[in-house]
Design a protein that fits this description.
Number of domains: 1
Radius of gyration: 14 Å
CATH superfamily: Rieske [2Fe-2S] iron-sulphur domain
Helix content: under 10%
InterPro entries: Rieske_2Fe-2S, Rieske_2Fe-2S_sf
Strand order of the largest sheet: 1-10-9-4-3-2
Number of strands: 10
Bound molecules: FE2/S2 (inorganic) cluster
Mean pLDDT: 96
Protein name: Rieske (2Fe-2S) protein
Order of helices and strands: EEEEEEEEEE
Largest sheet: 6 strands, antiparallel
CATH topology: Rieske Iron-sulfur Protein
Distance between the termini: 6 Å
Keywords: 2Fe-2S, Iron, Iron-sulfur, Metal-binding
Number of helices: 0
């Protein structure tokens, strides 16, 4: 199953959009470096629509206890309901529990079209 979800230039770096792949609601994300990623539009916690969340960065621990660096700007998807954060470029894995993740779909291109498939 595959679906054309948009034209390449309809989604700018740092933006997300809702779409459908067959019967599945999905979210398509474009990270600041221009990569496209697509996930099931449903949080692994309690099912919130991830498309109502935000793309942001995350606080990552340093070697010094109690100190954090803010990294991965635009590569984290934060759920709108309870704030769980997912790493877009790491298979949609939840930062707090990497065993949980958003279901990821394949993204490819046909001319100017962005195509999502199972
Ligand atoms: S539904 Fe997403 S964090 Fe709870």
């Amino acid at each position: 199953m595959k679906e054309i979800v948009c034209k390449k230039d309809e989604l700018q770096p740092g933006q997300t959009m809702r779409a459908k792949m067959g019967p599945f609601p999905i979210i398509v994300c474009r990270t600041p470096d221009g990569e496209y990623h697509a996930f099931n539009n449903k949080c692994a916690h309690q099912g919130a629509p991830m498309s109502e969340g935000v793309m942001c960065g995350a606080s990552v621990p340093t070697d010094t206890p109690g100190e954090y660096d803010y990294q991965k700007e635009g590569e984290i998807l934060r759920c709108p309901w309870h704030g769980m954060e997912y790493d877009i470029k790491n298979e949609g894995r939840m930062l707090a529990d990497p065993e949980q993740k958003l279901k990821e779909f394949n993204v490819s291109f046909e001319d100017d079209d962005v195509v999502v498939s199972l």
